[in-house]
């Protein structure tokens, strides 16, 4: 089915090629919501305690062996973070996105690392005592043993199912502040170095304000925002309209 | 003169002892060296670091560090309107930016319920295949260069430049085309374009034949790349390996065949596979896929409708609001499965755009696994043979 | 292996005053808190401005410098993609005497290709300081001028010349290889006219540059001056 068909939700899950899969899932798990985006893609929403069992079941019994991505959508209006796990079935050539809503967390808490199993994972890479796998001259950089980077919320990890999941989870911790206990290298910096502010992908982080504060903007940049332009030219005396 | 002290034993450790835990990596004992194959290194593809622990010449531990090219794309895309994002997305993946443009445009069209004209689909497919060609050519130069054969890099980058000239004629830009936009494509093919494309394709075919002679029949290349970085079939799904890395292991998966998009269901080609995924077979698979791209471009030019619209009328793009929804689209780029997950929330700005690059898994988890056990001089060749590209890891 | 004795600056026979405090007065050096054993690994020097030769000797030296610009082969951003066509046979920069060197010790021109993320900026500063005088910087693309397309990003810098001195800006996104060659020609004119004073500017305004760098680079785990 051509991707440019643009059919948005006019296929139901029973009509799509995921029908058999959905029957199997609905027999065993409570789904809050399920719909088909198109013939080869469906989205289901499960509760937090059913998420990892559902993912495991889909991987082991229903043929969804390919983990495409793990990401999060910050729904600040409802105070939740919606995690999305996209799984793909090569045999059916179809994918299902499993959505899990977890509380967003407003204050960072430090999670104890005593329960983490990543000590043994690190023996492969090797560490010098006191230098947590970091450069030789930076004893203070790495997270010290016992206390992890502060996190806003938590979710069960799936690093035991797919080796690549650990990378996604590391990025989520850095960008959204979601902690996954047990995931290897969860506190290692992924893309940012020396970041002290709140996790940048959260909606309440204002990247423009941060950039103007920290980096030196060159003067002379004008805005061509059409809302601004129309306001200046046509309605200079009226209050700003609600966002277009 | 110096006297060599022959009574000192070399500190090479039996790898079996490391595996079963009899020996631990202890950097204070003088058996290990930690080196940093860092961002400024001719042997890494793009800017990425490898923290390697060596015992003698063999790598016993590897940790990857990414983030040198992190620009915060996904956050920036949430601040711009849908139409303002298309110049931004092509810069995520530099060798083949058209896949980004196509996936973003197609995702927005799917969410907004827009159909694009037939000729636009063919033009999009043409651009994608040309991007694959350019990317493969540059990769071949890189792979040969990592084993010391610099001539091939000179030839392939030059021929890639001819392809970039074609792109410049079509879209106005050499590297970043910004040609595929929501609703279709930006401009039609110039007059006589097909003949010029055919000239370049003829040159590329001659070049590929020569590369076959001097690279794949070269005993040095064979000795260095056969058996290097073998990906066993069992870990392919566990690590999410896609593209030529997986096809070289014998797994026949190609998104253009399995889940055809654009006009690939009308084109005639077969999936290229190999026997065992080592560096040599992966190079061979990519060489065959380059030839396949040449053939596909010829087919597209022959089967394309001669006339037609290239762009659908969009609503006023500065006030364009897309109904709430989410979608995930994938395309087969030179490295593997490229995916865009777009979430719209009913306003004029996207809620979330998540880019899934194939190197996300290849360059981090897979590389850390494969590098252990290789010789330090082959690590660069291994990285290039996985065709990793850091910007799409950290976006 | 014979015992190598590390001689500290204030133990040298030919020491010229106690350099450590005098330097530490201006900016706070990164190695002052480290234990004694690690302090030798850092240096506590500052860059010095170099006076040019006199008259005809300087003209000759400038001519020689302009005609053999060796670039550091560090592709720091997007712009690196146009360095490949520049180095290979189609646009062949070697005929201009420009060749890529892998190490900053052997290069004279640093091409900053495009945007610089904070992580890369740290490496840029380190590589730039390790280059030997005279050294020049060529800034590619609009991202070095005013942040370019990533002007509101939390991880890319907006003005490169606040962190290292820049000699020539080449506008574009990306600039074509011909534009790069034009930029090199402009740099050659500047050098021949005796105006390629980036390294001296860095030495004279060292505190200002260092303060700007430290504002942005949070985890400073290298010497203040990597010479």
Which pair of chains forms the biggest interface, and how many residues does each contribute? A-B, 57 and 75 residues
- CATH class annotation of chain C: Alpha Beta
Low-confidence stretches of chain B: none
Order of helices and strands of chain C: HHHEHEEHEHEHHH
Radius of gyration over C-alpha positions of chain B, nearest whole angstrom: 23 Å
What's the count of strands of chain C? 5
Q: Quick one: overall form of chain C?
A: globular
Whole-angstrom Rg of chain C: 19 Å
Please tally the β strands of chain B and state the result: 8
**Secondary-structure element order of chain B, N to C:** HEEEHHHHHEEHHHHHEEEHHH
Task: Describe the 3D structure.
The complex is a heterotrimer of chains A (244), B (395) and C (227). Mean pLDDT of chain A is 76; it is low at 1-8 and 114-146. Chain A is built from 6 helices and 7 strands, in the order αββαβββαβαβαα. In chain A, strands 1-2-5-4-3 form a 5-stranded mixed sheet. A two-stranded parallel ribbon of chain A has the order 6-7. Chain A is of the alpha/beta class and 244 residues long. Chain A has helices at residues 19-28, 48-60, 118-122, 165-176, 207-214, 226-234; strands at 31-38, 41-46, 66-75, 80-89, 94-103, 153-154, 178-179. The longest helix of chain A has 13 residues, at 48-60. Chain B has 395 residues and is of the alpha+beta class. Chain B has a single domain (82-394), classed as Cytochrome-c3 Hydrogenase, chain B. Chain B contains 14 helices and 8 strands. The longest helix of chain B is centred in the middle third of the chain and has 29 residues, at 118-146. The model of chain B has no long low-confidence stretch (mean pLDDT 87). Chain C has helices at 19-26, 36-39, 55-67, 83-87, 118-130, 143-146, 177-192, 198-204, 206-216, and strands at 70-72, 99-101, 109-113, 136-140, 168-170. In chain C, strands 3-4-5 form a 3-stranded parallel sheet. In chain C, strands 1-2 form a two-stranded parallel sheet. In chain C, α6 (143-146) links the parallel β4 (136-140) and β5. In chain C, α3 packs antiparallel against α7. Chain C starts with 18 loop residues before the first helix and ends in an 11-residue tail after the last helix. Mean pLDDT of chain C is 81; it is low at 1-7 and 9-27. Chains in contact: A-B, A-C, B-C. Chains A and B meet through β3 and α4 of A and β3, α2, α4, β6 and β7 of B.
């Amino acid at each position: 089915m051509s991707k440019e068909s643009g059919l948005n939700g006019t296929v139901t899950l029973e009509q799509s090629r995921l029908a058999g899969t959905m029957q199997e899932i609905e027999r065993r798990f409570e789904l809050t919501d399920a719909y088909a985006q198109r013939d080869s893609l469906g989205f289901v929403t499960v509760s937090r305690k059913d998420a990892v069992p559902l993912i495991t079941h889909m991987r082991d019994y229903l043929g969804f062996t390919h983990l495409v991505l793990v990401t999060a959508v910050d729904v600040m209006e409802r105070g939740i973070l919606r995690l999305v796990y996209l799984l793909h079935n090569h045999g059916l050539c179809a994918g299902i996105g499993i959505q899990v809503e977890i509380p967003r967390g407003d204050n960072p808490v430090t999670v104890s690392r005593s329960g983490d199993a990543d000590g043994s994972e690190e023996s492969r890479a090797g560490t010098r005592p006191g230098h947590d796998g970091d450069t030789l001259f930076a004893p203070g950089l790495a997270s010290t043993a016992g206390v992890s980077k502060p996190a806003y919320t938590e979710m069960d990890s799936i690093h035991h199912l797919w080796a690549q999941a650990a990378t996604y989870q590391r990025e989520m911790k850095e960008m959204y502040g979601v902690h996954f206990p047990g995931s290897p290298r969860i506190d290692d910096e992924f893309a940012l170095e020396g970041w002290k502010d709140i996790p940048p992908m959260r909606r309440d982080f204002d990247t423009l304000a941060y950039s103007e504060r920290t980096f030196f903007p060159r003067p002379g940049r004008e805005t061509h925002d059409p809302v601004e332009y129309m306001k200046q030219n046509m309605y200079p005396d009226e209050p700003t309209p609600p966002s277009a | 003169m110096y006297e060599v002290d022959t009574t000192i034993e070399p500190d090479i450790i039996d790898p079996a002892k490391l595996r079963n835990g009899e020996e631990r990596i202890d950097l204070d004992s003088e058996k290990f060296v930690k080196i940093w194959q860092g961002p400024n290194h001719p042997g890494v593809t793009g800017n990425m670091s490898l923290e390697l622990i060596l015992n003698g010449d063999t790598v016993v531990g590897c940790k990857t560090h990414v983030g040198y090219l992190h620009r915060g794309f996904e956050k920036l895309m949430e601040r711009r309107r849908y139409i303002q994002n298309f110049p931004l997305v092509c810069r995520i993946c530099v060798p083949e930016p058209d896949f980004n443009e196509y996936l973003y445009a197609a995702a927005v069209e799917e969410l907004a319920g827009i159909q694009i004209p037939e000729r636009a689909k063919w033009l999009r497919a043409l651009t994608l295949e040309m991007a694959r060609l350019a990317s493969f050519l540059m990769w071949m130069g890189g792979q040969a260069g990592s084993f010391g054969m610099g001539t091939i890099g000179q030839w392939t980058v030059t021929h890639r430049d001819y392809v970039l000239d074609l792109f410049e004629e079509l879209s106005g830009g050499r590297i970043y085309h910004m040609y595929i936009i929501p609703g279709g494509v930006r401009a039609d093919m110039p007059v006589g374009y097909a003949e010029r494309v055919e000239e370049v394709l003829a040159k590329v075919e001659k070049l590929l034949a020569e590369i076959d002679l001097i690279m794949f029949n070269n005993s040095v290349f064979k000795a260095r790349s056969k058996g290097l970085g073998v990906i066993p079939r069992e870990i392919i799904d566990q690590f999410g390996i896609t593209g030529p890395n997986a096809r070289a292991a014998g797994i026949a998966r190609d998104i253009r065949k399995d889940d055809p998009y654009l006009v690939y269901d009308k084109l005639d080609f077969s999936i290229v596979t190999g026997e065992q995924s080592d560096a040599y077979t992966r190079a061979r698979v990519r060489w065959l896929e380059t030839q396949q791209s040449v053939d596909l471009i010829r087919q597209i030019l022959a089967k394309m409708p001669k006339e037609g619209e290239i762009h659908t009328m969009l609503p006023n793009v500065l006030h364009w609001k897309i109904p709430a929804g989410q979608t995930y689209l994938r395309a087969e780029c030179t490295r593997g499965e490229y995916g865009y997950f777009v979430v719209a929330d009913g306003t004029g700005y996207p809620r979330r755009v998540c880019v899934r690059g194939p190197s996300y898994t290849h360059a981090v988890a897979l590389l850390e696994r494969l590098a252990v056990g290789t010789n330090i001089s082959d690590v660069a060749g291994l990285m290039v043979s996985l065709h990793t590209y850091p910007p799409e890891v950290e976006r | 292996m014979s015992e190598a004795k590390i001689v500290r600056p204030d133990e040298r026979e030919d020491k010229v005053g106690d350099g450590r405090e005098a330097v530490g007065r201006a900016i706070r050096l990164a190695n002052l808190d480290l234990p004694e054993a690690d302090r030798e690994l850092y240096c506590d020097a500052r860059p010095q401005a170099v006076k040019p030769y006199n008259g005809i000797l300087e003209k000759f030296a400038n001519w020689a410098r302009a005609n053999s610009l060796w670039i550091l082969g560090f592709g720091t951003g997007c712009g690196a993609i146009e360095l490949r066509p520049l180095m290979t046979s189609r646009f062949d920069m070697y005929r201009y005497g420009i060749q890529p060197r892998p190490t900053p010790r052997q290069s004279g021109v640093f091409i900053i290709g495009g945007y610089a993320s904070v992580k890369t900026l740290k490496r840029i500063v380190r590589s730039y300081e390790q280059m030997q005088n005279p050294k020049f910087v060529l800034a590619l693309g609009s991202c070095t001028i005013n942040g370019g397309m990533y002007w509101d990003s939390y991880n890319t810098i907006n003005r490169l010349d606040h962190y290292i001195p820049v000699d020539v800006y080449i506008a574009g996104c990306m600039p074509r290889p011909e534009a790069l060659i034009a930029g090199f020609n402009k740099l050659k004119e500047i050098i021949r006219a005796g105006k390629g004073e980036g390294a001296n500017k860095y030495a004279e305004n060292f505190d200002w540059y260092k303060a700007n760098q430290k504002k942005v680079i949070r985890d400073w785990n290298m010497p203040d001056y990597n010479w």
